[in-house]
Design brief:
Elements (H helix, E strand, L loop, with lengths): L1 H10 L1 H7 L19 H15 L3 E8 L2 E12 L4 E2 L6 E2 L5 H13 L29 H4 L10 H8 E3 L8 H9 L3 E2 L5 H9 L24 H15 L3 H10 L23 E3 L2 E2 L3 E3 L8 E2 L1 H16 L8 H8 L15 E2 L4 E3 L2 E8 L2 E8 L4 E7 L8 H21 L2
Parallel strand pairs: 5-6
Antiparallel strand pairs: 1-2, 1-15, 2-3, 4-10, 5-9, 7-8, 11-12, 12-13, 13-14, 14-15
Length: 417
């Protein structure tokens, strides 16, 4: 959930400052990157990184061609109980989940449910109008490229989208911050349609003019979790089944991703990683009402299958999920050059974005950091999953550094194999 980082900077700077005193252990020099050729070399490097950066736990999967070249996990899923982080450890993926919505959108287009040019109001049970540009026609292509003119309202997104699961202990330092400072409630999950109608209906309790930009659809890029969840609801509405069921039927099951789910009721919490602010501070388990934008639970084993499929699709060698032309649609540049901010990416596919000859997407939420990346030609790719926080001030910087170090080591490994 990329924009959550910016929200946290604004909303919890003072909170982070108070807590950062226990998070200043990173004075150890970074391990050397040169000469990473073998699995043993990469393992040694990542183990050193784990110790020097005080990361709770993480998994790395690297695919080259049709093979899993490296698949290993490090650290702990639960530090207190000394439970190792393994390739079977379940972890939420945050916004890396959006790549599955990209695949679901491509599948729905193949099924003839809509096209990228379809007006979203031709598909929805209520009309959605940008009050700052009421004549603007929002199309599917605008939702999947973050150019719809719909944006997130920070306070609403955090306090109304996030919720703490029932039965979780919130009488802790971090629990009090989530409840009392960020306004996150402990409650049952609200159905996706009920949540979204409160945001997009003019009579909704969460309706806010600040959810919209004064812009023409397609002209301005602005990352939006609310617009993403709306895209998931469109698929839900036109297909006649819930979004989590649609993804299970057409993506997870065909790829035999048997431990992955968007459905909170199907999550194996006994095998889930504890999510950490730092190695001394676990978060209570939480979820999102607008789960489409960041609610997939998966593990390293399952994500290796997904990555292999995406790579085969990028090479034009697979029809497992849909025919080749829809893989091309999924990964094809959808915007004119210059619309996406250059510090973020060069262009957009269907939620996938392009940068430096790669297709990629990252994800960060409370106690969650993830990243998926593959070469545009589909020859190699990798996934990183961690129960480390990458949202609070300080932690965002720390995760960015660690991601760069891991990514650089992986690229060194791939270039030597």
């Amino acid at each position: 959930m990329k924009t959550l980082n910016n929200f946290m900077i604004v909303l919890i700077l003072s909170i982070s400052t108070l807590m950062m005193s226990c998070n200043n252990e990173d004075n150890i020099a970074n391990p050397p990157l040169d000469g990473i050729k073998t699995n043993e070399d990469l393992t040694e490097y990542l183990e050193t990184l784990l110790d020097s950066k005080d990361i709770p736990g993480f998994s790395v999967n690297i695919n080259i061609g049709n093979n899993i070249a490296f698949q290993k996990s490090f650290g702990y899923a639960n530090i207190t109980n000394q439970i190792p982080y393994t390739n079977q450890t379940l972890n939420n993926l945050a916004s890396t989940s959006k790549t599955f919505l990209g695949a679901a959108t491509a599948k729905a287009i193949e099924q003839g449910l809509f096209t990228l040019e379809t007006n979203i109001n031709d598909l929805l049970p209520i009309d959605i109008v940008n009050p700052k540009n009421p004549n603007g026609i929002i199309k599917i292509k605008h939702l999947v490229t973050h150019t719809s003119g719909i944006i997130d309202v920070p306070q609403t997104y955090i306090s109304s989208n996030y919720f703490i699961l029932m039965g979780q202990n919130i009488d802790t330092t971090i629990g009090n911050i989530l409840v009392n400072d960020l306004g996150i409630q402990q409650m049952e999950q609200i159905d996706l349609d009920e949540y979204l109608v409160e945001i997009f209906s003019e009579d909704g309790d969460l309706y806010n003019l600040d959810n919209y930009l004064d812009t023409e659809p397609g002209e301005t890029w602005a990352y939006s979790n609310d617009a993403t969840s709306l895209m998931g609801f469109i698929i839900e509405h036109v297909s006649g089944i819930s979004y989590d069921e649609y993804v299970a039927n057409y993506i997870l099951n065909p790829l035999q991703m048997n431990n992955s789910t968007f459905n909170l009721e199907q999550v194996d919490f006994q095998n889930m990683a504890t999510l950490y602010y730092d190695t001394n501070t676990p978060f209570p388990n939480y979820a999102n009402h607008g789960y489409v934008e960041g609610g997939l639970y998966s593990n390293n084993n399952d994500m290796s299958k997904y990555l292999l499929e995406m790579m085969r699709g990028a090479r034009g060698e697979s029809a497992t999920l849909f025919s080749n032309q829809y893989y091309q649609l999924l990964f094809g540049a959808q915007l004119q050059n210059g619309i996406v901010p250059t510090d973020f990416a060069e262009n957009h596919g269907l939620f996938w974005y392009m940068k430096d000859d790669y297709l990629m997407h990252g994800g960060n939420s409370l106690g969650i950091s993830s990243h998926i990346q593959l070469k545009k030609d589909g020859t190699a790719g990798f996934v990183i999953i961690s129960n480390m926080d990458g949202t609070f001030v300080g932690n965002e910087v720390k995760w960015t550094e660690i991601k760069v170090l891991i990514t650089t080591a992986i690229e060194e490994y791939i270039s030597n194999n």
